[in-house]
UniProtKB/TrEMBL annotation:
Gene designation: fbp
Family statement: Belongs to the FBPase class 1 family.
Binding site for Mg(2+) 2: D117, D120, E280
Subcellular location: Cytoplasm
Protein name: Fructose-1,6-bisphosphatase class 1
UniProt domain Fructose-1-6-bisphosphatase class I N-terminal: residue ranges: 7-199
HAMAP family per the UniProt record, alphabetical: FBPase_class1
Subunit structure: Homotetramer.
Reported cofactor(s): Mg(2+)
UniProt entry tagged with the keyword Metal-binding: yes
Organism: Lacinutrix gracilariae
Main subcellular localisation: cytoplasm
Keywords of this entry: Carbohydrate metabolism, Cytoplasm, Hydrolase, Magnesium, Metal-binding
Amino acid sequence: MSHQKTTLGEFIIKNQASFSYSTGELSSLLNALRLAAKVVNHEVNKAGLVDLFGDSGDVNVQGEQQQKLDVFANKTFIQSLKNRNIVCGIVSEENDEFITIKGQDKESNGKYVVLMDPLDGSSNIDVNVSVGTIFSIYRRITPIGTPVEEKDFLQPGNAQIGAGYIVYGTSTMLVYTTGDGVNGFTLNPAIGTFYLSHPNMTFPEEGKVYSVNQGNYRHFPDSVKKYIKYCQQEEEDRPYTQRYIGSLVSDFHRNMIQGGVYLYPNSTVNKDGKLRLLYECNPIAFLTEQAGGIATDGQVDILDIVPSQIHERAPLYCGSSSMVKKLLEFIK
Ligand code: P6P
């Protein structure tokens, strides 16, 4: 029963003590994300009824057709993060440049920066397939009170102090880490409260699922083609099942619960892959490692990559450690 479960708000307070560097500001940041998640969830669930389906008519920095819900989610998360004077800057998939946030005193006093994909997989909205929000949190590098700079956002993933996602699916869940394991919270929409439903989430060591868009097979490196053939072979523990929703958060969430490996390789079409390093690969990689899995670009751990541009892309292979290790035998 819900009344026996810990709420997200209670969990954040209880674990605040473990934020050795926080005086409650990180808790407040997490609560800002919690609030925005509930507002976006409400709109995602009724998009078709209030004409929030479909294209906004604009195109984002990636050249992708912006969906109306993308725009709504972006505005909602930015507004919620602005309101608490704890964040000094935001990078969003939907904005070309980083956003500077000043407090009422017109100063950049926030201690943190947030990087996000406000509505990942949004091309699935009109066909009623799960979509998600992905977020990544760092301490700023520049001194408090000075203008936020691009270097505040170009930190390697291993400097993250928090990361997570909201999946707007058959149920809405918020899954996050602050470096002390991964915990999942399910929204009770009747009362608008997230409850701890998946404590200490960990990747099964082994899995039977591989997630890749096989429509791109002909563009993949030969090593990846060989691994896919390996997955399909009739041998002791194969063939595996291929599952691909086309929504990173959904494919990742399923694999973390059931076990599996997700692949978005570089290819002759996308030389650096399609996924963005700062607000897709890095937060997913932080969650992966906190859940006992492996996340790599095929050569190095995702979290060790030093970014050079805020919208740069990287290949992503992540999931159950034994499956990723087998994949790396082919790639390396
Ligand atoms: P493709 C959605 O656009 C996204 O960024 C991820 O959520 C998803 O895993 C991937 O791209 C799907 O890309 O090329 O397979 O359609």
